[in-house]
Each structure stands twice: as structure tokens, then as C-alpha cells.
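Can anyone check this?
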Amino acid sequence: MKRVLLVQGHPDAAQAHLCHALADAYADGARAGGCEVRRLEVATLDFPVLRSPRDWEHGAVPPGLAQAQQDIAWAQHLVFFFPLWLGDMPALLKAFLEQVARPGFAFGPEARNALNAGGLKGRSARVVVTMGMPAPVYRWFFAAHAVRALKRNILGFVGIRPVRTTLVGGAGQMPADRFAGWSERLRKLGRQAR
């Protein structure tokens, strides 16, 4: 049984969004495929923003994120869901990743060499990003820079490989039939834990 952690990176916990619906579809598929699933809602966690390299290197992980680190350590496959805001992941998700991906957890002291850094080796991931623009425009014209940076500079650095992506364009005006198609795609990916 594969252990799957869904990381909901939408910063608005007051209402459900497309990211939440896609995460629900993925979770349904993963459970149907025999996976054990845990969910982590970044918007409901209480943690400060890191403000100095010293805090990052030597400060304690905030108590509100101890369980998040345990869930990441438990997982064999992680799935990140977030909307594209100003061309990147929302600031809250970035702040979360900065807090949990600390020395001693996400990578060891040899981390100055990116090829040997991975404290989270043996895990795979998927990044699901929703956006208003058509996904091919983001992928080809904007070179999917935020997703590439997340894959290479954060997830890859800590040893998570492979990292696959799903880009969902036209999120603001998605008709019901298109939503149903995306939901089914995410269910299928969940069944495969990919």
C-alpha cells in the first residue's frame, strides 16, 4: 500500500476552490487504488514567515509544523496543489516550504553539494497547478518557470524524484464538462499514485 500525502497549497481556507476539488478527485482515486492518503491544508496551519538565514539554519521548527514534517517523512508520494498567483506559487505555500525544508530534515550537512543533499530521497511527487491562462501559454511562452523552480530548486534539491506536473489552464471560466474531465484525470492519476 503506497502512502500518499496531498499538500493543499491554496491559501484561502474559507471556501473550496478548484484546487480543493482536484485534490478530492485525486484522493478518491488513490483510495480506490489501495493507497493510504493523508491531507495537509497549508492555509489552516499556524506558522511565522522566516526572516533570516540564521532562523532557517538554527531555529526550531514552529510547533504548528511538527505534524507536517512527520506527514512528509511518512509519505512515499507527495502531491502539491496550488493556484498560480503572479506567475508563482502563493506566498503562504513558499513560506511553508521554507519552514519545513530545514537542515537536518530535508537535507543533511553535506547539502552544499546539491547532488548529495537529499534527505527526502525515495519519494516521488506531482505538482498540480491551476491558472487562468491557457496551460500551453504558461508552459511554452513563460517556460513554466515557477513549476521548474519548485521541481529543481526545492523538491529536487531535497531528493524527491521523479516530479511530474499537471497544469490546469482556464480555471476561472471552466465549464462543467471540462471540470468533469479534469476530475477524472486526477482520479486516474490517484489510482496510479502518480
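Reply from J.R.: I decoded it. The first helix runs from residue 18 to 32.
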